[in-house]
Amino acid sequence: MSTKSRVLESLLCAGDQFCSGGKLAAQCGVSRTAIWKAIEQLKAEGCEIEAVTNRGYRFRVMPDLYSEGYLRRLLEATGKSWNVRHYEEVGSTNQVAKELAANGAPSGTIVIADSQSGGRGRSGKQFHSPKGGLYVSYVLRRDMPMDQMMAVTACAAAAVHDALASFGVRTLIKWVNDLYIGDRKLCGILSEGSFSAELSSMEYLVIGIGINLHPDPDLPEALHPIVTDAETETGVCINRCALVARLTQSLDTYLDGIGEHTFLPVYTVHSYTIGKMVRVRVDGEERIGRAVGIASDAGLIVRLDDNTNRTIRTGTAEIVRSGIL
Fold first, then answer.
1. What's the predicted TM-score (pTM) here?
2. CATH code at 17?
């Protein structure tokens, strides 16, 4: 690990506390001059670092820089073992995670990328994935039946909601796999699995999550009315490592309680969809109705125009904008 990386890890772990140059030099096994050079490198990368004589250094603003050591320390607090793979860019974190899983990667493998060149959502739709977002996929091996797949996505959505809320970012969950701020998309989730037909259970599960954290200066014009990011909406700058740690712990907790539907209160109370008119497919036919609730398996309960309720478990629920309550 480079001196710059070690200094970054130490300052991130220190939070709002000062770290003296002498202490940093001892921790890194280098001279104080080398520490000063590392500090200057971090400043050149945009870090705001306060330096006070006889006290040392600290971040004025927590930067969103990836630090393997910092993330490892944060994940240790979950009490479980996590195997993190970090990449500057991949086609898709889900694709990397599936390849790792197929080659025997253990449960608890986490794939993180700074950007994706081929991110995708449900039905193969493209997911714009520039630098400035969190793109993470989890490899999990859990004993659960195939019919819990929708609930897995709901668990992930509830976990993202809780993790972001801990940083002051309030979101709503659009059935089945998106999170919104206002009427614009902030996060997309894609759950995929490899199934054993003989055992009717999952061999492994991959949960991919993409969250827009910071503004994208190159955002295509067509996406401006559709997507947003946490910093633009709230002014909050979230460190990805800190968010991954919160998200990982919350996701693990919700998946542990999937059989008891512990995700349901958050998924329902913070729903973007309930109360709105939606267009869905019922028995192969397109119908319009009002979303009135979430079933225990995360299906969407829709009251159709004939006043009957149907639970939608496949496809999408397109919001009919003129029918919002």
1. 0.90
2. 1.10.10.10
